[in-house]
């Protein structure tokens, strides 16, 4: 009986053992099959990737420097070959899986729908130097489907400290071509439209044609910058502008905000000032730095005496208002500005939530300034009722922020500020003003603290003392200088 029980136990054990062996065999076979499939897919992916890499236009190693420091010209056949290879990639001779793998991190971050919007977007970058080249590089690497590059300038040796992709071989060649050539090595399926042209208001429509999703202003020339911003703003074309990265070194001071909020930036101030003359004061996002100048910091280098002797300084530039002096630039700062621009565009297009630090809303301050100025005008006219002056909050902001840079012309203080007439009204009998004649312009007023304005009204506007006699020659000279500046900017109205 014991023997029978033992055999039965062995039989059950062998049966379970055999089933276990079959299960293990099945598992092992499945694992081998899966490994084979994965290996095949990996080999296939490697093959596709190699094919894609082989199709990418090679860099132009034949572009050596000439004896005088410029790049040797590329042959027409080289350019055509690169263009054909890139065009083939854009027509569909590429693998969608490879593209999605390249953009995998963006997809996880922005989401599938967000990445789709980015890939279907069209961005025009005007200005392809230190800032614009970084914008273009990161937008292409992030999946933007179509990019138009607009710049009339060439790569110089001094460009290489801040340009995203230019090399010695690119010196002397158009910036847009150097940029396109390098970017095609990264993502040949992206459509890159390189325009070696200067953007100008008179033919701006052609260079901005195609319903762009976004336009980037990375221009140095002040008038062209203003024209481009005004053109896009008045036509509801989304645009973001990069302000001055020159003479800046503190990356923690770089901000993104409305152009009305930008401070401590001469380029932004000049741009904003001219735009306000054209009736545009808000609604344009800008990248700027709040870093203040100071002892030991870089500043715009003066022109040498020899350059002044050559003739009018404004005739030395390539374009009107174009820089004719060397602008100190730490190469890292334009890249930070460009990355901020690209980041803003990507998150905006994808609908990704952002929350930038906001500047103070000064509209109430400007409103109070106009009300106080109207009160002063009424008192100077014997408390005439219903005084309405021909200035508004926008004018107040222009005078306060642009002309007097947000500081009292007397003390330099920047709190409790008001606008006041600078010179007394002419006598009534000279006929300059009557009961209904309340003419006052932005050039008639200055910015002071409330206490200073009270003293000024009492001693200058009512008693008739000269402003110079009350405040001294330095203050009077400053006011005269600011009036001359205003006279210059008034031509842009």
> How many helices in DSSP terms?
16
Structural class: alpha/beta
- Strand composition percent: 5-15%
At the fourth level of CATH, the homologous superfamily of the largest domain is: NAD(P)-binding Rossmann-like Domain
This entry's quaternary arrangement is single chain
The average pLDDT score comes to 80
CATH architecture of the largest domain: 3-Layer(aba) Sandwich
Distance between the termini: 117 Å
Low-confidence stretches: 2-6, 60-77, 307-324
The total of beta strands comes to 9
Shape: elongated
Widest beta sheet: strand line-up: 3-2-1-4-5-7-6
Protein name: THIF-type NAD/FAD binding fold domain-containing protein
Function: Catalyzes the ATP-dependent dehydration of threonylcarbamoyladenosine at position 37 (t(6)A37) to form cyclic t(6)A37 (ct(6)A37) in tRNAs that read codons beginning with adenine.
Main location: mitochondrion
Transmembrane segments: 20-40, 122-140
Describe the structure.
The chain has helices at 2-55, 76-91, 96-102, 104-119, 130-141, 175-183, 204-207, 222-234, 266-277, 305-309, 332-350, 363-380, 393-403, 450-462, 467-471, 473-489, and strands at residues 122-126, 146-150, 191-195, 214-217, 239-242, 254-258, 285-289, 417-421, 445-449. It is an alpha/beta fold and 493 residues long. A 7-stranded mixed beta sheet has the order 3-2-1-4-5-7-6, sandwiched between helices. Strands 8-9 form a two-stranded antiparallel sheet. Helix 6 (175-183) links the parallel strand 2 and strand 3. Helix 8 crosses helix 9. The longest helix has 54 residues, at 2-55. It is elongated, with a radius of gyration of 33 Å.
């Amino acid at each position: 009986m014991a023997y029978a029980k033992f055999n039965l136990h062995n039989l059950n054990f062998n049966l379970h053992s055999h089933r276990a062996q079959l299960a293990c065999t099945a598992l092992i076979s499945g694992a081998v099959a899966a490994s084979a499939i994965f290996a095949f897919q990996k080999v296939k992916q490697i093959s596709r990737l190699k094919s894609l890499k082989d199709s990418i236009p090679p860099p132009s190693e034949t572009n050596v420097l000439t004896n005088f420091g410029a790049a040797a010209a590329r042959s027409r056949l080289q350019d055509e070959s690169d263009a054909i290879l890139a065009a083939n990639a854009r027509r569909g001779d590429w693998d969608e899986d490879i593209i999605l793998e390249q953009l995998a991190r963006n997809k996880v971050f922005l989401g599938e729908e967000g990445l789709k919007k980015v890939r279907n977007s069209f961005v025009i970058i005007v200005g392809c130097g230190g800032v614009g080249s970084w914008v273009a590089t990161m937008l292409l690497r992030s999946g933007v489907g179509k990019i138009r590059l607009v710049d009339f300038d060439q790569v110089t040796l001094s460009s290489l400290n801040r340009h995203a992709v230019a090399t010695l071989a690119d010196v002397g060649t158009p910036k847009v071509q150097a940029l396109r050539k390098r970017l095609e090595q990264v993502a040949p399926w992206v459509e890159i439209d390189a325009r070696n042209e200067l953007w100008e208001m008179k033919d701006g429509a052609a260079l901005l044609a195609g319903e762009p999703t976004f336009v980037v202003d990375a221009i140095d020339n002040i008038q062209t910058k203003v024209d481009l911003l005004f053109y896009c703003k008045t036509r509801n074309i989304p645009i973001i502008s990069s302000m001055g990265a020159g003479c800046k070194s503190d990356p923690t001071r770089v901000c993104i905000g409305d152009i009305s909020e930008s401070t401590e930036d001469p380029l932004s101030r000049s741009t904003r000032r001219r735009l306000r003359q054209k009736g545009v004061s808000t609604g344009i996002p800008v990248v700027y730095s709040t870093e203040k100048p100071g002892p030991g910091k870089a500043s715009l280098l003066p022109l040498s005496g020899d350059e002044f002797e050559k003739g009018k300084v404004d005739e030395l530039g390539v374009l009107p208002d174009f820089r004719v002096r060397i602008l100190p630039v730490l190469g890292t700062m334009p890249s930070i500005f460009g990355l901020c621009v690209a980041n803003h565009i990507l998150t905006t297009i994808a609908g990704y939530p952002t929350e930038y630090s906001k500047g103070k809303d000064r509209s109430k301050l400007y409103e109070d300034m106009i009300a106080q100025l109207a009160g002063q005008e009424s008192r100077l006219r014997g408390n005439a009722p219903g005084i309405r002056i021909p200035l508004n909050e926008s004018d107040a902001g222009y005078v306060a922020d642009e002309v007097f840079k947000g500081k009292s012309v007397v003390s330099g203080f920047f709190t409790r500020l008001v606008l006041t007439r600078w010179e007394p009204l002419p006598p009534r009998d000279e006929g300059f003003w009557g009961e209904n004649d309340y003419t006052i312009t932005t050039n008639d007023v200055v910015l002071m603290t409330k206490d200073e304005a009270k003293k000024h009204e009492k001693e200058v506007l009512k008693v008739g003392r000269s402003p110079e006699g009350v405040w001294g020659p330095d203050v009077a000279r400053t006011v005269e200088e600011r009036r001359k500046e205003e006279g210059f900017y008034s031509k842009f109205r």
